Amino acid sequence: MIQLVIFDWDGTLMDSALKITRCIQAAARELEIPQPSYDESKVVIGLGLNEAMQRLFPQIPDAKITQLVEAYKHHFVHNDKTEQELFSGVREGLERINATGAMVAVATGKSRVGLDRVLDIADLRSQFVTTRCADESRTKPHPQMLHDILDFTAIPNKNAIMIGDTSFDMDMAHNADMTGLAVSYGVHSHDTLLQTKARSLVHSFDEVLSWLDQNGLEKAFS
Question: How big is the chain by its Cα radius of gyration, in Å?
Fold first, then answer.
């Protein structure tokens, strides 16, 4: 029985990859560092900002990584006007999951400030019993975010599921001894996700709902 559904945010609930990658590139240009491509940038989405920048720019000293992070944040909030939208079916789907009596949470590589901002913009704060962010926990794939959510909800890991679009999400779920459901419409490739220990791979948010319905959500969707 699934009593707790935990979602990643970027690439799973919100289509934000283009904005994130553009801001990474803008931060690199500002600091006169060779900018990574879209494909290079998108594969680090899901990690905490510091970890993402360290992976993208392994030759850069820590002090400049800090500058990159701050430049990224400034571009994300103040300069870049790229639209971010929920993926099709997400708003209605979250309402349907909540209507079953299951709890819904978020485990994300976003900062607390960043997640709170988009929750308010999307008017989704009421859909989640709790959320955990990379700057208040160990970053993915460490399982601390999931452990914190399990402790908060008092739900055992066998009755919870992690849903995300990256190998970081699926590795985090595996490290927490939790079922992972991968979605192919986000930032990591179909082949990358197939190499993880995800229970299954689905291709739209409607398929997420169908999978949950068929695999033990507390009460079937009407």
Answer: 17
Q: What is the pLDDT of residue 222?
A: 46
The highest-level CATH class for domain 4-15+86-214 is alpha beta
What confidence tens digit (pLDDT) does each residue in 135-186 have? 999 999 999 999 999 999 999 999 999 999 999 999 999 999 999 999 999 9
Mean pLDDT lowest for which of 72-76, 193-197, 199-203?
72-76
d(CA 129, CA 152): 9
Regarding pTM above 0.85, the answer is yes
Interacting residues of 103 by C-beta distance below 8 A, sequence separation 6+ = 3, 4, 5, 129, 153, 155
- The three-class DSSP label of residue 86 is strand
The verdict on whether omega for the bond into residue 141 sits within 30 degrees of 0, i.e. cis, is yes
What CATH topology corresponds to 17-79? Answer: DNA polymerase; domain 1 (1.10.150)
| Better-scored residue on pLDDT, 94 or 216 | 94
> Boundaries of CATH 3.40.50.1000 in the chain?
4-15+86-214
**Residues sharing a CB contact under 8 Å with residue 163, sequence separation 6 or more, in sequence order:** 5, 6, 7, 8, 12, 169, 180, 181, 182, 183, 208
- What's the rounded mean pLDDT across residues 111-126? 95
Cα–Cα distances (Å) from 61 to 54, 57, 155, in that order, read 9, 9, 41
- CA dist 38 and 25 (Å) reads 8
Cβ contacts of 190 within 8 Å, gap of 6 or more: 184, 201
